[in-house]
Amino acid sequence: MAPKSDVGTKRKLPSRSKDSNTKKPKYEKRPPPPPADEPDSVSDDDFGDLSDHDEDGGASLSGMKTQNNGDIQSKDNDGKTFERGQTSRESHQKQKQLAQDRKANKPLADELTRAKKLWERLRRKSHVPKEERDKLVEELFAITTGRMKDFVLKHDAVRVVQTAIKYSTPERRKMIAKELQGTYALLAESRYAKFLIGKLIVEGDKEVRDLIVPEFYGRVRKMINHPEASWILDDIYRGVASKEQKAILLREWYGPDTFLFRGTGEEEDAPTAELSVILEKEPGKRAPLMKYLLDLTNQLIQKKMTGFTMLHDAMYQYYTNVKVGSEEAKEYMEMIKEDENGDLLKNMGFTKYGARLVCLLLAHGTAKDRKQILKTYKDTFQLMSTDPHGHLIILTAYDTIDDTVLTSKSIISELLGKSEQNDASNIITLANDPNARLAIRYLLEGASKALFDGSRAGDLQLLEQIWEIRKTTSKKDPDTRRKELVAALSPSLLAAIASSAEDLVATSFGCQLVTEALISCTGDKSEALKAVAQTAGGDPDAEVEKGDEESEVIADFPSPPHISKIPHGGRMFKTLISGGHFDRESRKVIPCDPPLRFADILYPVIKEHSVSWATGPSSFVVLNLLEADDFSHAGELRKTLKKHKKQLEKAATEETPEQKAAREAVKTNGEAEKVVKKGKKAGAKEKPVGNMGSKLLLEKLGK
């Protein structure tokens, strides 16, 4: 029989007996070999020629270290050596003293020590009285004045200067800024001193800013690539520099010629960073300028330094000056999309011109390009919706992506949430955010004046540009696209109104969203309409009751007034009763389909207190009920109002609380009173006193 193979089996070593002397000790020490003729006694002189390691590899004497001169030093457990008769503690004290001596021999050693002691006291703001702090600041300035440049270049001393700036007067800040002139570019490259520049600019004024910013001229290309200086440069560009200073800094991205030769005459007084203007005046330099700009932006993208506002502004200038559909434009699109992890696109979504560039990429791109851009922003849409610039990317995606299923799954589902509870809370948050509300209401009401007022004129101009571009890049009809997206949005929106109507109608923005949703959404609206009507319940004139025990607790959080007392509540009910928006051109209400018939839903809720509504701030709600064509209880409401005609007459003639408050405000404000008198002299009509809705109700009842 063939022997079994040992492959794959573990061989068992022969065991040793306990008395075996072949087992190696855990730590083996080999003594030095004895001399050939070992003497009976050994003298101290016999060790004179021994070194740390002899030729045979023997270890040195245990716990001892010999020197060539014969002196012996002991070694502690940590391996540190110290002299004979000296303990480890004494050795550490000696080393500490040597370190202190070295510091004392450095320049400004005494001044730095005193300044750091003052700083230790000053930085504990709550523990130092104002009088004492003023004295400490005076002493600190006495030490640092004239030596600022020496202090700021030391990592432990620059904090002292920052504290001096914090507690200094404007005059002293200017003094510090002037003393540091010529060093700001160097300070920006320092890991610690760069914060001093930020402190000076934040605490200083325009004069300090104008001392610091010009020192970065001509150094942008070098500093934007520096790991420390790049961030302080971009912070100054984004938040501090004036319009002219920003233009000068951005021009350096186009090449050294555009910075050095900015033209003469008017352009010298007001330099521009618009690349189109520069290329129009010097068309022969287009190729080198565009190449320089492309190389610099690509260099930062390759280094993963993609969070700079300057970079995004420069990229926008490049893309808007290439021909649409050209190879340059296609290659630039690919460069942006191929950025690893999509950090470039994510960062661009939160700056002004970065977001605008993404909008243009969505408009000019193919369906594949748009899908890849949307994928990059996954899990970011909620944050983008609240950003002053990022929400424009969402609106552009609504207007340009033909695949509405993709848009609803990628954007709408993330904005609203995954469950009904999350839907309601998210919608309440989005409805009251000045930017995020556009991400929902834009689908419901389009580019209305309520959404795009004067402050958003630039946003509307961008969207109008997108609408022109999509005529050649999108195939789906805009109205069809919007209706499909509204259908995807409607179930979650109506469910949130039905479950959280009280929270939504508590604010003006919430009332506007509820109104637009009930008019524009598709599907069953009955539960949502009932929930909104229930918010009108209760006596409008009843005071909020507070228990004795709870009064102290809820004193800081008073209960909101009845919805009939707030203007946006009355406007919401008026529009819902009308069943649509009023069209100024046709001078009539355009009803929604199917009709809401909200008048019959609301009346049973306010029936008991209809007179209070008719004589209060929301009197027009009752007037709209009488004028509604689909209101089936008009006769009953007329009888109720006629019985309380005296109350209507009183409300129609007496000054309302709002009018009284406005009159008192005019009296206390002298300037406002002058304006009122001036208006009277010019023949301006005075506003009538009394409840206008009650007056119109009386006229209607008299017919």
UniProtKB/TrEMBL annotation:
Instruction: Fetch the InterPro entries from UniProt.
Output: ARM-like (IPR011989), ARM-type_fold (IPR016024), CPL_dom (IPR012959), PUM-HD (IPR033133), PUM3 (IPR040059), Pumilio_RNA-bd_rpt (IPR001313)
Superkingdom is Eukaryota
Which parts of the sequence are annotated with region: Disordered?
Answer: 1-110, 649-703
Record domain PUM-HD: where: 114-493
Q: Does Lyase show up as a keyword for this record?
A: no
- Compositionally biased tracts (Basic and acidic residues): 73-110, 649-676
Task: Report the GO terms under cellular component.
Answer: nucleolus
A GO molecular function annotation here is: mRNA binding
| One biological process term in Gene Ontology | regulation of translation
Q: Which SUPFAM superfamilies match?
A: ARM repeat
Residue ranges with Polar residues bias: 63-72
For bias type Acidic residues, the affected ranges are 37-57
**Protein keywords:** Repeat, RNA-binding
The record describes the protein's role as: RNA-binding nucleolar protein required for pre-rRNA processing. Involved in production of 18S rRNA and assembly of small ribosomal subunit.
Listed PANTHER family: PUMILIO HOMOLOG 3
Q: What's the name of the protein?
A: PUM-HD domain-containing protein
